[in-house]
What we know:
The protein has helices at residues 11-19, 22-42, 46-66, 70-90, 92-104, 116-135, 151-154, 166-172, 212-223, 252-263, 269-281, and strands spanning 140-144, 158-163, 183-187, 190-196, 227-231, 238-242, 245-247.
Amino acid sequence: MPIDFNIHIPAHIHGILATITFLDIFDIFIVAIILYKIYEMLQNTRAISLVKGLLVLLVLTVVCNLLELHVISWLLQKTVTFLFVALPIVFQPELRRALEHLGHGHFFRASVFLDDDEARSVVNELVKAVKTLSATKTGALLVIERETRLNDISATGIQIDGLITADFLLNVFIVNTPLHDGAGIIRGKRLIAAGCLLPLTENRTLSTELGTRHRAAIGLSEQCDALVLVVSEETGTVSVAENGYIYRHLTLDMLRERLKPAFSKQETSFLKQLRDWRREKK
């Protein structure tokens, strides 16, 4: 007896599928790319937690409507409405970053990274310089530029455009010189400016142990995707600020791991697993 492989499709679903055209598929593809790019910008930031919370509220609202829990549904609907009004305020740094990406043409364009050898060389020179600065308790502030251009920040300092080496950085941050108190801006493998002014964070919940350098590092990381490296003048402690958070008391190995993604393209976990699987098959 032959087996019937025909799958029964309900009439209304069949009717919907029959109306789909190539332009509809293209439209869905473009929307998917935009949503993915938005997710890329939000991942590993404070905004992603807020988005997850908003999605939970939306799901609860739908469930309560289905269960006809009218009072809870009314409260959730009002809460969601209020949150949508408050989103431009809550997501102000992320919205600003997204608009800057669009203005610079970075929304659909991949970031420019150094190749592996160049990235490794720059990271080694930075770690070597930080080791000396930390040992001598010489304060330093270094901003590693990513997708968001920092021309407005670099314009507040002295233009340099020098190749990154440990000896060069140690000379830039000599105590009691004009460049020591400001921030250095790194673009790729070059220090493009030094003595730059950074915006201070307005976060009032930070520890009183954090000085001006640390607050400036956090302030800039709140407004853009830069990674900011700080060496404390009082204790020699090494810290890194990223996405509005500061990670303190880093060892040199921890610092190296933090710096690598800022200079070289990192494989996604899926691609890494696929590459490892293909290697095992060979």
